[in-house]
Amino acid sequence: MHKGYAIELANVVKRFGEVAAVDHVTLQIHDGEFFSLLGPSGCGKTTTLRMIAGFEYPSGGELMIHGRPMATVPPHHRPVNTVFQSYALFPHMTVAQNVAFGLKMKRVPRAELGARVQAALDMVRLAGFAERYPRQMSGGQQQRVALARALVNQPEVLLLDEPLGALDQKLRKEMQLELKSLQHRVGITFIFVTHDQEEALTMSDRIAVMNQGKVLQVGTPTEIYERPTCKFVADFIGETNFIEGKVVEQSDEYATIQTPDGLQLRGYTPRPVNLGEAATLSLRPEKARLVLPSHARPDDAFTMPVHVEMITYIGSDTRITVRLNEGRTLDVWEQNTLSTLDRNAYWQPGEAAVLVCPPANALVLTE
Amino acid sequence: MIEAQPQNQRAQRAGSWWPRLNRGALTWGRLTLTLHAFLMYLFLYGPILVLVVFSFTRDEFGVRWTGFTLEWYVRMFANDRLMGAAGNTLYVAFVSTVVSTILGTLLALAMERHRFRGRTGVDAVIYLPVVIPEIAMAVSLLAFSSLALEFIRVVTGEVVRRSLVTVIIGHIAFSISFVTIVVRASLKHFDRRLEEAARDLGANSWQTFWRITFPMILPGILGGALLAFTLSLDNFIISLFLSGPGTSLLPVEVYNKVRRAVTPEINAISTLMLAFSITLVVLSQLVQRRR
């Protein structure tokens, strides 16, 4: 096994009765990486994290932490620490006692203990809060106490179970950046569980997208967003338009699909497809452009005559719903790069237009 | 349980305890509601007030107010029989509380934390001593103790009589259920993730229990213990049936005195028992509030 991996899961299975919550998951997480497990609730991401923490033992497969087999080692003997979703701070202890708990369990000498607790509280900017009780603090502060309580132990890997879930939107954004910079400073491997795709894209070095107990794709945020290898990932990350059809042409990394009503659309294939196979074209709303019919150039792009149906102006963007001739609607987002009040600069409902998209901007995906 | 009360709620409570009649119009509805409340409190606490007041009266039948005296308290403390019974009662209550609290807490932990064979059966039987008529319980304990004492006589050849030990065993038998009910309630509200967090931070099961679980459910355990203690303190039927010759307990002794004559001495001892119970409740509330 490779020494450079902080965490390695090989064919890990976890069954609860008949149900496989985690179904043959294989993952390699590098040392010092910010790695996210992303998926809808019930996809097995939290169970995977709990197996790494030691709260659940795998029903099958192998789990290594820095090359050491850990599948059935109890949590208190693992070199990892967890930040819980609800923080799980000890309500009968002060902030300092909470942070000191792990060090006390390891019998760290008193003199060193005080200094390390102080350093950990400084790190999360809670220096003056040592004698407070958790209930006297706000959600964001409790969150930082939970971080300090885990990091003070200098774990090899820090596990975070949707730690920002309970915070409001603004605080969430702040904490995302703070967590990211904290991870850079301490250089510890972070494994971050979330169902929020934007959060995962913002913070992660790499992301594993999970659904129904399986890992569907592992990659950098760019790879996951720009080159999803299946329909689920394309749908779950960001927004997209799906057009169903059948593969009628296939060459190198591109394929053309034909919709039941005869429309032919070309796109990039992250995974090889076969002629005649059912496939879906995924077109992200910001990857297509609308042009006036007189401006359309059919040579290097696929084009679709459309009618503008609805306009939603949201400041930075204008979101346009267009109707294809056979009735289907698609979403297209246009960035408002011009600052103007001139009505002619914006699309109007009922206007005829042509939707233009280079094949590299659309993806042909199979299930 | 341990959750802090919202500040504003506490502030409201700290305000005047007097009904706020002055806020808004003094309507008939408000007036009758207030009157009703006063009558309810009078009904509940009037008899107790009479008891306390007449423990200080000079009247030797304790039914008229003829002036203040502490004579009955002095007499009470000089009464060896009464004091002996009080000592027995405290001793029985203390021992049975300690034992039933430990056993009841362990039972509650087993019921809440583990899935085992016969768990549903135990669950159904646990509450039996709470609902069973006390007289049936007392008779069953009497019959069982006869059997057990006879068994000891046959096996060891020693004649063992009923004593405080049999009373203690009887009190433990019914107290365990009450302790278990109270402790289970506090375990139900206990967040298991706190235990996971402790394990995660390097605590083994033993350390996790003593540093996290125990302090968190301590108010429940104290509440259960308090209940067991007061139940034991004023238990009459089981104490009467299971005590041996010459080992009387306070409620039984008071009853014997009342049968002869109601004297203010009875009022005095009752007042003291009342004060003792109230002190215990207040203490336990203080302990829980401090957390």
Describe the structure.
Chain A: This is Spermidine/putrescine import ATP-binding protein PotA. Chain A: Part of the ABC transporter complex PotABCD involved in spermidine/putrescine import. Responsible for energy coupling to the transport system. Chain A: Keywords: ATP-binding, Cell membrane, Membrane, Nucleotide-binding, Translocase, Transport. Chain A: Its EC number is 7.6.2.11. Chain A: It is an enzyme of class 7 (translocase). Chain B: Belongs to the binding-protein-dependent transport system permease family. CysTW subfamily. The complex is a heterodimer of chains A (367) and B (291). Chain A is an alpha+beta fold. Chain A contains eight helices and 20 strands. In chain A, the strands form four sheets. In chain A, strands 6-7-8-3-9-10 form a six-stranded mixed beta sheet, sandwiched between helices. In chain A, strands 13-12-11-14-20 form a five-stranded antiparallel beta sheet, with no helix packed on it. In chain A, strand 12 (254-258) and strand 13 form a beta hairpin. In chain A, helix 2 packs across helix 3 (110-123) and helix 3 (110-123) packs across helix 4. The model of chain A has no long low-confidence stretch (mean pLDDT 91). Chain B is mainly α and 291 residues long. Classes of the chains: A alpha+beta (367), B mainly alpha (291). Chains A and B meet through strand 6 and helix 2 of A and helix 9 and helix 10 of B.
